[in-house]
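Researcher: Please generate the 3D structure of the following complex. Treat every line as part of one assembly.
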Amino acid sequence: MIPTRARLADLAAEAGVSTATVSRVLNDKPGVAESTRAAVLAAVQALGFQTEPEQSDGEGLIAVMIPELANPSFAAFANQLALVLTAAGRQMILCTAGPGGTSEEQYLDELLGVEIAGIISVSGSPADSLASHEHYQRLIDAGVPAVFINGYASTVDGAFFSCSDAEAVTISVAHLRSYGHERIGLAVGQLRYQPSQRKRAAFLAQGFDESSVVSTFFTVEGGQAAAARLIDAGHTAIICGSDVMALGAIREAHTRGLDVPGDVSVVGYDDTPLMAFTNPALTTVRQPVPAMAQAAVGALLTAIRGLPTDRAEMLFHPDLIIRQSTGPVHAR
Amino acid sequence: MIPTRARLADLAAEAGVSTATVSRVLNDKPGVAESTRAAVLAAVQALGFQTEPEQSDGEGLIAVMIPELANPSFAAFANQLALVLTAAGRQMILCTAGPGGTSEEQYLDELLGVEIAGIISVSGSPADSLASHEHYQRLIDAGVPAVFINGYASTVDGAFFSCSDAEAVTISVAHLRSYGHERIGLAVGQLRYQPSQRKRAAFLAQGFDESSVVSTFFTVEGGQAAAARLIDAGHTAIICGSDVMALGAIREAHTRGLDVPGDVSVVGYDDTPLMAFTNPALTTVRQPVPAMAQAAVGALLTAIRGLPTDRAEMLFHPDLIIRQSTGPVHAR
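Model: Done. Output below.
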C-alpha cells in the first residue's frame, strides 16, 4: 500500500512536506506532528495513491562509501558492489572516506549537490562508536535512502547487512579447540569499531578471559604487535580480526623463529582473494561478500522505489576455510 | 597564451563552434577548416582573451575508469587516485568497466549526462589493441579532458603515464642472469594488451626466442597454464606479467613437487601489497603507483584549467624488489 517514489513527491508537494515525511505517515511511523499527518492524509484523499511500484529504478548515481581500497576486504566489497550495481543498470560513485582523507560527512555534504539516488556504506560510521550518524539520517530524511554493510546503528532509518562476527569467533574457537588448543588469544582492531566489540563479546562468551584479548589496529603491524603480546603470555593460537592482522601475527611468529602452525596456530578473518597463497596458506573465516552485496543492493533499489524495507540487521553466516596456518597444539 | 576554460566557452559561443575547436585553433593544431579558424580568430579579436589561468579547478566529478578492483594492482591505483584526488578537493566516480560488465564506452555515454570535469583511465581501452578509442576522443572534443595510466594511443589527445614494461623485463632478466639462469621464459596475458606486447618486445630484444614467450591470461590460472608449458620446455626461470600470474606459476611448480626457487625461479610484476607474505615471498617489479597517480592527477587538473598538457607518454621507472622466489640456477 505504498506509493511509488514519483507519487510520494506528488503527495509531498500537495501537503507541503518532504517525501520522507509522507513516507513516515504512510508507514505509520512516529515522529510526525498531528497537523502534518492530517495534511498528508488530506493529500492522499485528494490525489489518491498508487499501490503498485513502478518497474523503473529511476535515475541518479549510487554512492558507495568505503574506508579505503588498500585493504583487500574493502576492495572485494567495492568490486562486488560495482558488478551487482552495473548488472542492475546503475552507476556507482565510489567515495573512499576515512581517517586521513575526506570524512564521510564531508563527502555526503558534497553529494547533496549531485543527483544521488541512494547510498551504500561499507564499514562506515555506524560501525564506529565514536562517530556521529547524523549525516546519514539527514540524507535519508531528504529522500536519499541508505543501506549499510558491516555497521549497525539503531538510530538510522536504513537497512543493515552484516557478517556475523559472533559466529566467526565461535567457529574459529571450535576449530582450534578440536586441535587441542586451550590458550587461545583474540587480536582485534580498535574497540571503537563494532566488529571488534562483537568479536570480543563472542570470545568472552566462550569462557576466555579479558587478558586473552588484545586490541591494536586492523593492519599488518597491528597484528604483529598483538601477536607479540599474546605469544609472550603463552597463547598457542591466535584468532585475528582481519586477514591482514593474521599476516602480521604470522610474521611475528616467524620473526621469533616459531613455526606456524607447529608452534602457533593463526586464524584470519575475511578470506580475501590471495590468502591461499600466503606462507603458510591462511586458515580464515570467509565473509559471503557476493551474497551481502546482492542483498544490500536489492534493499537499496527497493527503498529507491519508495517501497518499505526491513530495518532489522540481517546477519550473514561466515564459513571457516581451513588451510595450513592451524594445526594440533604442541607444548612449547 | 592559452585562455581559461570559461573564456574558451565565450569564444566558442561567439564563433559558433565547440570549445575543443577553439582550443585547436589557439594551439595551432591541424584539422580545423580555414573558415572555422577565421571565425574563431574573429571571436578572439572581438572579445580578447585572458592569458592568465584561473586558480580554481572548478566543479564536476572526476571519473576514474578501471577494469576491475579484484585485481590488487587496479585496487592499488584506485586507492591512490582517491587519495590524491581527495587531497586536491575533487570527488571521484569510480567506474569498473571491462569484460563481463559495463563497457567503457557505455559508461562514457552515460557520463555525458552527468557533470564530469575529467577522466582518468587506468589500463583502459588505449591499452587494448582490439578496442576503439573513439569514445575518449569524442569526450575530449566535448571539452572533457582525459589522462591515461598504462595505456597509450597516439590517436587520442590525452596525457599518458605508463610504467616502463621494457625496463621491467630488462631488470628482471638481468637479475635472473646474475643467478646463472639462461633458460628464461616470459608469461604474459593476451597479446592484444599493450603491456604484453611491450614486455614481449623487450624480452625478445634480450636475445630470447619466440618459443620462450607464452601468452595466456593475467590471472592465477593463466600464470599456472603458462608455467606448465615453460617448465615442460625446460625453463629454469619465469618472468610473469603480473603478481597474480606469478602466484599461479608458483602453484604450478609446487603442484609438480618442484621447489621455488630451488628448481624454478619466478619473478612477478606490480608488487601489490601482500607479495611479501606469499609462499615463497615474491621477487617482483614494483610499479611506482603513488608517483604515477600524482602525475596523472596533476596533468588532468592542468587540462581542466584549460592549460596545455604534454601529449608525450611519460614512462616511469620500476624497481626490482628481490625476495625469496628467485635464486641460483640448478641443473634439473
